[in-house]
Design a protein that fits this description.
- The protein has 16 helices and 12 strands.
- It is of the alpha/beta class.
- The chain has 2 domains: 137 residues, Rossmann fold, CATH 3.40.50; 233 residues, Rossmann fold (3-Layer(aba) Sandwich), CATH 3.40.50.
- Helix 2 crosses helix 16 and helix 7 packs parallel to helix 15.
- 50% of the residues are buried.
Length: 408
């Protein structure tokens, strides 16, 4: 596996598109790691300090993810080095998408990512640049449909991603009009933990759980885990955190979900970050869901959790461990050898799977069909890993080997 991984990580991407904004200091890159299957896909992110290497590593991560979620295409990513709080953001995005529109028409599909919203920014701005849909390049490069079929499938994709959830089994509050895109990634993180116990043995019900990050992914993961009977005993967010070693009730977690402001945890008894960061890793915990930014989780934190009974990590963040390596650094390897680590490309593949699902011919558009498809995709990946290695350790190592054998 290490040899495969080294060859994959060190191989130069096929295409690197570099852009300097003529009106601001913004700088951007689209990295196409490969045109496997004739196309590549990956979202657009924006943050101050982002660089070319970050975009390359994310493009390679997407390619591994597509081995699970489908379609069988190459990985890509777009990144813009610019402060997303700057009032000039909209203009930067407009010029960026105008510049990359030829790629988006031909062989590259994009979507929302960190600080760039799929529904309110990516879709309308790419349309202004003459792109039918941000995934049009995947249709043209990979599926090569007839014009009529392309129109039908793009219509299905447009409708599906922004579909408002109507089923109370999937929406915390149907009156708030949460969409598939709002909830599906966190749902997948929760389902990964459930399927782990179903396949490797045990039950999710009653398992003490810590959530890191309470944004789009972490809040939804907490909601669905609590819905299935897990006990959320701790939440840590940039704003602070909460601890209840007896476990918050499902209603309490639902209320926290509904009370969050954007991607920020809001609570009357919020513990300051410094204080909660000292305590939370020592709580007796069986499930850990890191759903904050990449590369935050240290080996000391992991070792403390293992000593407190940690069993499984369901990764909501891409590369949650504080390693410099793209995928499988020493902290992740250390952790994978001691507890069950469901890698990010399986557990957080929900949005990638939704795109793949809606690209298929005439799929069912119900909440149940969409969410069950993501759940089944994650279940199949964990089952395939189990078939290669039924031991509860080195799950990530096995899953990477399965993926890399398709790519190298």
């Amino acid at each position: 596996m290490k040899d495969l991984l080294n060859r994959y990580e060190t191989k130069e991407p096929e295409i690197v598109f570099h852009w300097n904004d003529p009106e601001t200091e913004a700088e951007g890159w689209t990295v196409i790691n490969s045109l496997r299957g004739g196309a590549a896909g990956g979202g657009t992110r924006m943050r101050k300090g982002l660089d070319r290497n970050e975009v390359i590593s994310l493009a390679k991560t997407m390619e591994v993810k597509f081995t699970v979620s489908g379609p069988a295409i190459g990985g890509a990513k777009s990144g813009i080095n610019f402060d997303p709080a700057d009032p000039r953001k909209k203009g930067v995005l407009e010029r960026w998408y105008a510049a990359v529109s030829p790629l988006l028409k031909s062989y590259y599909g994009t979507g929302g990512d960190l600080n760039v919203d799929e529904i309110h920014e990516v879709i309308p701005i790419t349309e202004e640049s003459g792109v039918w849909h941000p995934q049009e390049g995947v249709f043209n490069g990979h599926f090569r449909p007839t014009e009529a079929d392309k129109i039908n499938r793009i219509g299905q994709l447009r409708q599906g991603v922004i579909k408002v959830l109507e089923n109370t089994a999937y929406s915390p509050d149907v009156s708030r009009k949460y969409t598939v895109a709002d909830m599906i990634t966190g749902y997948g993180v929760a389902e990964a933990a459930r399927h782990f116990y179903d396949i490797y043995g045990g039950s999710l019900a009653g398992k003490r759980t810590v959530i890191q990050g309470f944004g789009n992914v972490g809040a939804a993961a907490a909601y669905y885990l609590a819905q299935q009977g897990a006990k959320i005993v701790g939440i840590i967010d940039a704003a602070g955190g909460l601890i209840d070693e007896a476990g918050f009730s499902f209603e309490e977690i639902k209320d926290l979900f509904l009370a969050k402001e954007g991607n920020t945890l809001v609570a009357s008894k919020l513990i300051p970050f410094e204080e909660v960061n000292k305590k939370i890793w020592e709580i007796k915990t069986e499930i850990f869901a890191p759903c904050a930014a990449s590369r935050l989780v240290t080996q000391a934190q992991i070792d403390t959790m293992i000593a407190a009974g940690l069993e499984v990590i369901s990764c909501g963040a891409n590369v949650p461990f504080a390693d410099k390596e793209i995928f499988f650094g020493p902290i992740m390897e250390h952790t994978d050898a001691r507890v069950s680590v469901i890698p990010d490309f399986i557990s957080n593949c929900g949005m990638a799977r939704v795109f793949a699902y809606f690209m298929e011919r005439r799929v069912q558009m119900t909440d149940e069909a969409i969410f069950n498809d993501t759940s089944q995709t994650i279940k199949n990946a964990i089952q395939n890993t189990y078939n290669h290695n039924s031991n509860k350790n080195n799950i990530s190592k096995t899953a990477f080997e399965i993926a890399l054998q398709q790519l190298v």
